[in-house]
Amino acid sequence: MSSDDAQILTTLKVLIIGESGVGKSSLLLRFTDNTFDEDMAATIGVDFKVKQLEINDNRVKLAIWDTAGQERFRTLTPGYYRGAQGAILVYDVCNRQSFRQLDRWISELDTFSTKTDPIKMLVGNKIDQKDSREITYDEGDRFARKHSMLFIEASARTCEGVQVAFKELVEKIIETPSLWDKTEASIRPSDNDHSDDAPAGYMEDNNLLLNITSEPTPTRSKVLGKNSVKRKHDTEDEQDSNVVDSNTKKKKQNERVKLDLCQGREMKTSNRSSLFSNNPTIPEIDEKHVETANEEIFGSASSLDKMPVHPHIIGCLKQKFNINRLTNVQEKSIPAILTGEDVIIKSQTGSGKTLAYVIPIIHRIQSIEPLVRRETGPIAIVLVPTKELVQQTYEVFQKVLTSFVRIVCSPLVGGSNRNHEKKRLRRGLNILISTPGRLTDHIENTQSLSFKNIQFLIFDEADKMLDMGFADAIKKIIETITKHNDDTDKHFQRVLLSATPTSALTNFVDINLNKNSLHIDISEEFNDESAITVPKTLTQMFMIVPSKLRFVTLIAFLLKILQANKNNEAKILLFLATNELVRFHYDLLNTILNGEKDDDEDEQGDLQFGHLLDQPIKLLKLQGDMTHHERTSVFNEFGKLTQGILLCTNVAARGLDLPSVTWILQYHPTSPIDYIHRIGRTARLGSIGCSLIFLLPNEAEYVATLQDKYKMSLKNISPDDVLETLMFSCNKLKQHFETRTVVPRTAEQCASSLHHHFEEYVNGSGERTEEARQAYLSFIRYYASFAREWKYLFHVKNLHRGHVAKSFGLRELPDESNNHNIKERTGTFASSKIKRKIKSKEDETIDPLDEPLPEPIKSETKSIFDRLPLSNNPKFRPRYRNFSHISEFGSGLEVSTKSHKKKDKVGEFLEKKRERNTSKRLFGRKNVK
């Protein structure tokens, strides 16, 4: 304890209340930090600051609560008023409505305050805006006299009257000892006497919510955890008189347990460990001022009309896309691509790179003589890493092609019917949009596919395709196109796009693109080549949370966002590491936020848990093992929502343009490159967005890596401030113990109660417990799979397994003996999609291969394939790629295997005959393969 703290007379709790926009936060900042921010954001829920004042030669610690004034927070919970000795009511002298609402705020204060007649100060703010003033000084003075309040006018901008207002209020409180003197104040309104046996950490009423431990009176010293209390200045006889017999001790112990229960603390008979004890220390991280690499999004205002492309394209951009000006990357890339030279484009996520190549490609195709039609065949190929990006790019092409109906575009993705795609290829397609794996599959198996007229080959998100192990597939595609072009003596143009260049990408460019390629880098004026450009409108944040507190902190932060945007758009992307984690958290969040339960849920284990939101929020999930139809449906549904939460793996991290996403939450960290692409799903094309990443204390150095190596600027968020949001749901977090109902009264108690319900819910059903166990094991596998270069940040040995298990609601540490490849994960994996197919017995008639399984599977510890039927089935063979296991992906690449079934000769002859007849009918010539 410092000498300064020892001289503090008392700690006072003061509220600042009033309508939204009157300047409460600005007054608080001016008083505590002597600063003023023109762009001060609205307070969410409650915030507070602490400052010490010298009053009549006495030092007083002032804890000031700045409360939200928005409509959604108008009726603050009684907990915010409890224990306040004073309140500052603020109105805007330029806003008559804020003055009219003062009666309501006074009524709430009088209703919920636990202190008798707390001191009130009326403050008229913004007196510096004289021209806009609506409320005179006399009006404010009459209102203050009517309600027996102190009154002053102030300006947070000029600092006039701010210090005086707070000082006069504190002086008046000090002159009223009944409000703050501990010897006169009771612990709780329901307690008649002060008990010396109050448990450790118990707060006086005036400090209950702040979690501030006030100094005890000088004559007392508590010995925590003992059954008796010694007084420093008692004589030995008096101390002996305090010794009680065993029956009295047991009685006091029982009373202490009941008191603990009333405060939401854990019962001593409980097997649950404390949520807030034995947590690792959260390291302090300096928010470095980093010179962030930013790039201007939009180019000149007249760039669209001056663009050298077909007028129909310009009209389509204005009508279909509502575009009146080009972005910088579009303005620079379109003329470069129109030259026909190979082009390499580097630009931040969300800058409009797709249209940067769509516009010039369509312009050049429509100008080809003779005119391009279906039967011309493929002219352009666009390669992208995921199915969702294929669909999204296809939709962009389709919009621009509305003026050129003779040019046909089509997507090729895994999961779609291959025969249907073959029919479209036979009829004729001019623009193919595909993943590398699917296109390679058609090269090998579709004879009607011809590349002799190819003029454009586009690599979108090229670095991701290489990371996902598509290098061999891309090489084969380039070789096939080159071979066809060599036969016809034609040259095809290559365009490569990426937001995050890597060493693998550099090698790829050196091998496959011309040495005289045009390089377009929108951020080239920034000197540091390692810096990654991010939108200026993106606010990046991080929060270091111990394992045990991660889930309750996630819930609190989601509540904070949703409450702050109750009547506005609030679309959240929540990134999780694996498919199992997505499923587990999707079910939990649906239960906790919306109160949704499974139809087959056992009523005996139901604790009536959940429904923390007054209005339900739409939750969706997007993961790698979903079918193409399911993923497309989720993608489209989320795009139409104004409010919702999408839980997803890294399958949604690249290239997807999800409209109006306001928040990116990264619950599980990933490599910095994937981090950059994740945050790129918000703040697109100049819109405002925020991102937050959850980190463990042992992962704190990750922030320094982003700051120093990638020039990212991140703000630190305190988990304690976030947990305060749970106070809005304190009545919904009450616990039932036998005949008692306990309502938590502090943020810590709310968090403990929430986690208690969470544990009861998870362990109330064997199925839910198994889901939690599988999610835990999936997380451990994921954590063990980080690339070697990131092991210094994310090493599985740094995890406290017990604390991690508690974050999944488990009360026992799961057995990891069957959790394969924990130490080093190899390239072999079995997806749940495979398991579903085996269970449904869709392909039982396929003959298994005679050859043995690959070497990595044959080990002393049997893998999942050794325990499943049809393990040698060629369709169910594991896939091998040299890729980063940090990412989830859904490329649609299937294992290429030829069927071992012998076709019936008659059926084979009839099939070939049908193909020949179709070709004659479509193309008017014979012998078309």
Automatic annotation (TrEMBL):
Q: Where is the Helicase ATP-binding domain?
A: 334-519
Q: Which domain of life is it from?
A: Eukaryota
Which InterPro entries does the annotation name? DEAD/DEAH_box_helicase_dom, Helicase_ATP-bd, Helicase_C-like, P-loop_NTPase, RNA-helicase_DEAD-box_CS, Sigma_54_int_dom_ATP-bd_1, Small_GTP-bd, Small_GTPase
Q: Which residues form the Helicase C-terminal domain?
A: 553-726
The answer to whether keyword Lipoprotein applies is yes
* Annotated EC: 3.6.4.13
Q: Which UniProt keywords apply?
A: ATP-binding, GTP-binding, Helicase, Hydrolase, Lipoprotein, Nucleotide-binding, Prenylation, Protein transport, RNA-binding, Transport
Q: Which family does it belong to?
A: Belongs to the DEAD box helicase family. Belongs to the small GTPase superfamily. Rab family.
Please identify the protein, giving its name as recorded: ATP-dependent RNA helicase
- Please spell out the taxonomic lineage of the organism that makes this protein: Eukaryota, Metazoa, Spiralia, Gnathifera, Rotifera
